[in-house]
Every structure is written in C-alpha cells, then in structure tokens.
Amino acid sequence: MTNVTTKPRVLISDKMDPNAARIFEERGCDVDVITGETPEELIARIGEYDGLAIRSSTTVTPAVLDAATNLKVIGRAGIGVDNVDIPYASGKGVVVMNTPFGNSITTAEHAIAMVMALARQIPMADVRTQAGEWPKKDFMGVEITGKTLGLIGAGNIGSIVASRALGLKMKVIAFDPFLTEDRAVEMGVEKVDLDGLLERADFITLHTPLTDQTRNILSRENLEKTKPGVRIVNCARGGLIDEAALKDLLESDHIAGAALDVFAQEPAKENPLFGTKNFICTPHLGASTTEAQVNVALQVAEQLADYLVNGGVTNALNMPSLSAEEAPKLKPYMALAENLGSLVGQLAHGNLTKISIEREGAAADLNGKPITGAVLAGFMRQYSDTVNMVNAPYLAKERGMEVREIRNEKEGYYNTLLRVTVETEQGNRSVAGTLFGSEAPRLVNIFGIGIEADLTGHMLYIVNEDAPGFIGRIGSLLGANGINIGNFNLGRREGGGEAVLLLSVDQAIPEDLVQEASALEGVKMVKALTF
Ligand SMILES: NC(=O)c1ccc[n+]([C@@H]2O[C@H](COP(=O)([O-])OP(=O)(O)OC[C@H]3O[C@@H](n4cnc5c(N)ncnc54)[C@H](O)[C@@H]3O)[C@@H](O)[C@H]2O)c1
Ligand SMILES: O=C(O)[C@H](O)COP(=O)(O)O
Predict the structure, then answer these.
(1) Which domain of life is it from (predicted)?
(2) Which one of the ligands is nearest to 98 CA?
(3) Please, is 268 exposed, middle or buried when counting C-beta atoms within 10 Å of its C-beta (0-12, 13-18, 19+)?
C-alpha cells in the first residue's frame, strides 16, 4: 500500500519578492503566483488553496472566505490587515498572520522623504525644470531644523520617524493614547493631546492603523484647527484624513503642503486631490524597498509554511501561540480571555493603564501567561494591527501598563472563572466569563451586572432604564433597518433599575443606527462591538 501525502497548496495573490515562492517550495508547499485577478476570479480559484499570501492589493472579504473551503491561513506580507475581514476569518477558523516589523524602517524613511519633499517642493520643481522652465524664483522652501513635527501614532513606525526627525534637529511632539510619559521621555518626544498637536505642529505625520477611533482623525474640523502653514504627511492609511477638506485647505493656503502615500480609495487612479497646488503623492510605496520586501516575503513564507506543515503559530492576529500539550485544554480559555479583553477595551474609556486578570476556581491551575497574553491582545487590538498574543505583554509593558495576574483557587458561584478589571476615572470596571461544559466560553458579568452571553461576531451593547416596552422598541428599530438579531441577552441590576442588553446581530451596525438607538427613550448608552 502506498501512503500518498498531498502537499499544502499556497496562492500568492499580490506582487511579492520571489524569495517567498522559493521558501514555500523549500518547505514542502506547492505554490502558485497569480497576481492582479479580479475579486470574482479570486473567488473562483480560492477553494483550491490551503494558504493565501497577500499584500494590500488583495481584499479578503466574507465572499472570498466563504469560497475558501480549504483555506487554513492567510499571511499578510506587511503590517496593515484592514484588507482582511479578521472576525469573519476567525469565524471560519482561518488564522490570519502579519509580519509586524519587516517594513517599519522603510515606511518611516518614506515619511521622512515626504517631509523633505514638501519642505523643498522637490517633485514640482523637478517637473518644471525638466520641462525647460528653470523656475528658480517660484520655489522658496522652508528649513526643517527647529520646526515642530507632530506624530499622530507613536508605535513602531512613529517611533522610528521620531528618532530620524530628532536627528534632523526637529522638535517632536506626539499624540497617542497608549504612549506613556516614560516612553515619551525615552523616545525624546513630548506627549500632547490632539488639539495641542494640531495647534503647534509645523509638520504632521500619521502613523496609526485605520480603526473606528482613527477613521477621519484629521476631519475638516481638526484640519481647520491646524497651525496656518502646516505641512501634512500620511504614509499610514487612507481614511485617516478628510480628502475633500484637505483639498479646500490647500487651495485656501491654510495648509502649505500635503503628501499622501495612501488614499481612501485604492488604487487611486482618480482623486479630487490630483492637481491641487502643493499636493504631492506616491502610489502606496511606503513599504516598497528591496530590503523591506525581502524581509516581509521571507517572513510571511516561513510563517505560513511552518503553520501548514508543522502547525507552528507565529504573529497570528486571531490565534494564540501554544505548545502541543497545553493547546487542547487552554484553547477555550484563550478564546474567553481574548473576548473579555476586547470587551473591556471596546467599552471602558480614558487612559487605561492598570489591568488585572484573575483566574478563579479551576482556572487558577492553568498556565496564566497565555491567558494574560490573550486578554492583553484583545484589549489592545483596537489600537494596533500588530498586536498578538505573543507581543501583547511586551507592548503593554513598553507602554507603561500595569498588569496584575491574580490566582484564586477557591471556587465562587462558577467552578471556573476569568475576571478582567481595568481602573478608569469612574473607578474599577470588571467583566467576567466562564466555560459552559468545559468548552463554550460565556460572558457572565459585565460591569457588575449578571448576564449570560456568547461574545461573537457583531454585537450591540445597550445600557437602558429597566422599563416595559424597551425590548420591543429596539427590536423594531433593528428590524426596520434590515438587521437580523441572532441572540438576545439581558441582565439588570435590580427590577426597574439599570439594565444591560447584548444583542448578537448578523451584520455590522452602522454608526447612524447606533445614534438612532441612543436616542430611544430610556437609553443611557449604545455601542456597536465586534469580536
Ligand atoms: N504606507 C505603507 O506602505 C505602510 C507600510 C507599513 C505600515 N503602514 C501603516 O502604518 C500603520 C502603523 O504601523 P506601525 O507598525 O507603527 O503600527 P503600531 O501598531 O506599532 O503603531 C500604531 C500606533 O497607533 C496608535 N494609535 C491607535 N489608535 C490611535 C488613536 N486613536 N490616536 C492616536 N494614536 C493611535 C497605537 O497606540 C500605536 O502606538 C499600520 O497600521 C499600517 O496601516 C503603512
Ligand atoms: O501595511 C503595510 O504593510 C503597508 O501598507 C504596505 O502595503 P503593501 O505591502 O501593499 O506595499
């Protein structure tokens, strides 16, 4: 009898350094490189593959994932994963990995190049000089020495930009909710709030992921608050800046220059900003150097092949790294821990620098490190594309977060329980969860109110006055907007007091519907959540 083992099949669907294909083959995978396909062509083909290696041009939508019946892992050769529907991939059991550091230096250097290009108007001067105009009198630049650079986002790339800018004798100020005073001092930058940055910066560079909190962070209102003559660089993500407002403020000379590497719609073959004075751009070239592309191609191929061939997990955004023995026992706890971390991260506001993770009853006997990693990864996921179970504790420490792990062997009401508590300006806020039947993670308490809920997919969290008729009103509102409710979970402090409603819904809830729900009688707070 012959024992036939089939090799895992991998599709590389974006332009990638050839080292990636070589590594896949050397590590025992069959690889196809097919770039530039339409979404329909990708959907028709994806069912054949176990692994998918991408950059930013391939968008992995629910439709792609539905068609990907054999897919086990997606690897992003780069940092930003906003082109992958991670909750949907998680629901399908597909691991999503990225390469968090391979292109950071290159992207930081591109941001600095943009600062220089704006200061001396190099692209415009080049075009007109080569056209034979010799336009010497039209190009009066500015020095960057002594100028203030405002960083929005001071993570990996932001901190490299800061170090380069300091070397160029700029003063650097930074707005980042996760930047601690100690880390700011270590980086040689001044921590400021957003308004302070807008008021003071001569140059602004953006280095955040695109999230619900950062989308449109340079809105028209914020752009109008900037110092007259400011120059703005975005090498992070389109969608962080209101492009129409940017155009108006460039035309009115309030903004002296803007350099974009990324656009709200990509590929940006047309854009209202094209042709605007003092506007320069590049076609998402931030990561495009030989060095960075070799780095990310090698890393993504090694990570994907390791997972497909050996089951090893590195830099996963939706799965813990685990040893073979611990894995089966810890797996449901990790899912619970990540969801509890994500829940407090999404609901508790302010400068959250203290978090405690309590394991009670049977959970006290488990290896606490992966559980802590999972809580912190869930907690920080909304701030960073690069956080995972492995790097979350390190990132939390670097950002000055105080993390406490508490073991309590004595069983309470549940025989096993995880409790996550953050310290906020309103006092301590805790959420807790257990496992039903040793497998199924369940939320059992939210901010002091008992509830039983499965934290999954898209959800709506509502705090309201406990009064008759409310459930009907919210059900009707969602129904009228075509939103199907999958699950309804209720909890309350005491009859007629504060009540909590956690609805699981079949699709993301748009912001305007959240606003409508907030305006319903008796509602105190509404928040759309994603797990
Ligand atoms: N142009 C390109 O080709 C290119 C290349 C690489 C990365 N990027 C983009 O750059 C982004 C940053 O990469 P990184 O490696 O520095 O990521 P990172 O996760 O190390 O840093 C992101 C920082 O943004 C901060 N942040 C989050 N929300 C914020 C908010 N509301 N206000 C201010 N700061 C906030 C986080 O606290 C974190 O410090 C990536 O997410 C990616 O989208 C673009
Ligand atoms: O997030 C990233 O890594 C960058 O946006 C790079 O994108 P690219 O790989 O498509 O150049």
Answers:
(1) Bacteria
(2) 2
(3) middle
Residue written as tokens 């968008």?
59
Q: How far is the CA of 89 from the centre of ligand 2 (A)?
A: 20
pLDDT in tens, 245-277: 999 999 999 999 999 999 999 999 999 999 999
CB atoms within 10 A of CB 211: 17
Whole-number Cα distances in Å, 222 to 218, 225, 240, 257, 512? 5, 5, 11, 16, 21
Query: Tens of pLDDT along 205-231?
Result: 999 999 888 999 999 999 999 999 999
Domain 320-431 grouped into CATH 3.40.50.2300: no
Task: Report the CATH fold assignment for 9-102+291-310.
Answer: Rossmann fold (3.40.50)
Ranges of each domain in the chain: 9-102+291-310, 142-281, 320-431, 456-530
Q: Amino acid identity of 482?
A: G
* Atom in ligand 2 nearest the alpha carbon of residue 80: 1
Q: Does CATH number 3.40.50.150 belong to domain 142-281?
A: no
Q: Has 458 been annotated as catalytic? A: no
What CATH architecture applies to the domain 456-530? 2-Layer Sandwich (3.30)
